[in-house]
């Protein structure tokens, strides 16, 4: 069975730069500092649907 994929969106510009496999046990949305190629710096990326 294929895993469900979710996108990580930049909190500054809103672009969806990364996709990850969703963990069904996690209840809150994931927030990680990742590099945004559109902003040109490390920003907070939040899990989207």
Describe this structure in words.
- By secondary structure, the protein is mostly beta strands.
- Helix content is 0%, strand content 51%.
- Strands 2-1-4-3 form a 4-stranded antiparallel β-sheet, with no helix packed on it.
- Strand 1 and strand 2 form a beta hairpin.
- The protein is elongated and about 35 Å long.
Please sum up the structure shown.
By secondary structure, the chain is an all-beta fold.
Structure characteristics:
mainly beta, 49 residues, 4-stranded antiparallel beta sheet, elongated
Present the secondary structure layout.
Blueprint (H helix, E strand, L loop, with lengths): L4 E6 L5 E6 L9 E6 L4 E7 L2
Antiparallel strand pairs: 1-2, 1-4, 3-4
Quaternary state of the chains: single chain
Q: What is the chain-wise order of helices and strands?
A: EEEE
Strand line-up of the largest beta sheet? 2-1-4-3
Q: Characterize the overall form.
A: elongated
First-last Cα distance: 20 Å
Helix content: under 10%
Q: Classify the beta-strand content into a percent band.
A: over 45%
> Counting H and I runs of at least 4 residues, what is the number of helices?
0
The gyration radius over C-alpha positions equals 11 Å
Query: Major sheet, described briefly?
Result: 4 strands, antiparallel
Number of strands: 4
Global structural class:
mainly beta
> What is the mean pLDDT?
93
Low-confidence stretches: none
């Amino acid at each position: 069975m294929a895993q469900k994929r979710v996108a990580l969106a930049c909190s500054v510009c809103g672009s969806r730069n990364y996709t990850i496999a969703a963990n069904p046990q996690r209840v809150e949305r994931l927030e990680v500092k990742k590099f945004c190629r559109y902003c040109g710096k490390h920003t907070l990326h939040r899990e989207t649907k």
